[in-house]
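Quick one:
INPUT:
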């Protein structure tokens, strides 16, 4: 993976990473497997797939699995978020994922890829009009630093 996010070959590699990640989906209940791949400011790629469990509401979407993994390993400044599904039309991130994208990947381009390569693209800002974030919390918001070691 190169550090050239607008290079089509580079985007192609990110899409391929998302398809590979999708193979890890634990979608026992819905049968709906989703893969996600993010690219950060250094060109690093972070991936995830959706995880479902017997207590249905606790499952996590592929996008949040990928972004939480990235964030907790130092990934920042995301430029692209790819979401892949084996569906006729591209799958758009759910509301919960949009909130997380708004807070942690605000300047990213979201590329949604369906079967056969059918693709839709949107900015996070387009997906989240009038988003809620820490600015609304004012002085209550923490510094946002990581905890570090005790
Ligand atoms: N899902 C995702 O992982 N990402 C999306 O963008 C839409 C939905 C997952 C959640 C659940 O595991 C399954 O797809 C069906 O909703």
């Amino acid at each position: 993976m190169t550090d050239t996010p607008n290079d089509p070959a580079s985007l192609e590699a990110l899409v391929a990473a998302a398809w590979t990640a999708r193979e890890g989906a634990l979608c026992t209940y819905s049968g709906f497997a989703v893969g996600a791949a993010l690219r950060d400011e250094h060109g690093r790629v972070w991936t995830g797939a959706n995880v479902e469990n017997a207590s249905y509401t606790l499952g996590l979407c592929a996008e949040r699995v990928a972004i939480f993994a990235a964030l907790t390993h130092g990934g920042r400044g995301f430029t692209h978020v790819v979401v892949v599904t084996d569906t006729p039309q591209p799958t758009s991130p759910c509301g919960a994922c949009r909130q997380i994208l708004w807070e942690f990947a605000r300047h990213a381009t979201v590329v949604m890829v369906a079967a056969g390569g059918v693709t839709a693209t949107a900015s996070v800002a387009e997906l989240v009009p009038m988003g809620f974030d820490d600015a609304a919390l004012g002085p209550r918001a923490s510094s946002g630093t990581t905890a570090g070691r005790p």
